[in-house]
Amino acid sequence: MNIHVGIGDNRSYALKQAVLLYQDGSSTFATLHDVESGQEGAPYLSAGQSVTAGFLQKLAAGLGANVAAEILPEHVLARTQELIVWWSCAQRRLMFFGNGNEATKKLNGRMYPHPALVFMIIGNELFVRALGEDRRPTADTRLKGAPYWNTDSHGRVCVGSMRVPEEVSASSVSGWQDGFFASEFTHPGGAVHLTTHPSGFLGLWAGIGLGRAA
Q1: In what order do the strands lie in the sheet with 117-122?
Q2: Most buried residue, 90, 105, 109, 196, by most Cβ within 10 Å?
């Protein structure tokens, strides 16, 4: 009996090996077994052998969990197989608003000062937070909510039709950041309190655009 798993339209995976985990309290070890076929076609596991670091590295590479060696620039704060985090200093940026409201039309396509920001990518999800000071954050730095539409209470960005790089790497983070600011800010992300400004989100950016403190 042959065992196959279909994933997608063009691939069919045959069962070749199995990993068995053994536990005794907090102690764990694993064995690797080849899958054999019996006389009647029924599969069975051959004698096991210890799982090696080399096998785990090969398995991780096959699952797409390997990260190529990179030289990390100063603005990258953290890098693992699952995520990359970087910060951006305070600066003036062009912003676009696109919900068709008359108030947003007056704000659209203008330069605005922005606070220092921290961005994070997990998988293909982009997150953004603000910094209270314009300097590289440390592990103890408290992050603040970033005053942007298209983000939720966790800082998760609604990517939508945003143009971003296909890869996630230290060299591509500027492309993700540029894609964020080149997109249109169109709506609040749910019940999110973005600012304490008395005139709300639009009043905040209108005040900043006119050079008033907000």
Answers
A1: 76-79, 83-88, 117-122, 125-130
A2: 90
For 101-116, write each residue's pLDDT tens digit. 777 778 888 899 999 9
Give the bridge partners for 129, in sequence order: 118
Beta strands in the chain (DSSP E): 4-6, 12-14, 17-24, 27-37, 43-45, 49-50, 76-79, 83-88, 91-97, 110-114, 117-122, 125-130, 184-185
Domain ranges of the chain: 4-62, 76-209
Write out pLDDT tens, residues 117-139. 999 999 889 999 999 999 999 99
Q: Residue 158 has which token pair?
A: 């609604």
pLDDT digits (tens, 9 = 90+) for 55-70: 777 776 666 555 667 8
For residue 140, count other CB atoms closer than 10 A to its CB. 5
pTM metric for this prediction: 0.66
DSSP label at residue 82: S
CB atoms within 10 A of CB 207: 15
How does strand 184-185 pair with strand 91-97? parallel
Helix%, strand%, coil% for the chain, nearest 5:
15, 35, 50
Q: Report the alpha-carbon distance of residue 158 to residue 149 in Å, rounded.
A: 9
Tokens found for residue 159: 């990517």
Instruction: Pull the structure tokens for residue 188.
Output: 């609040």
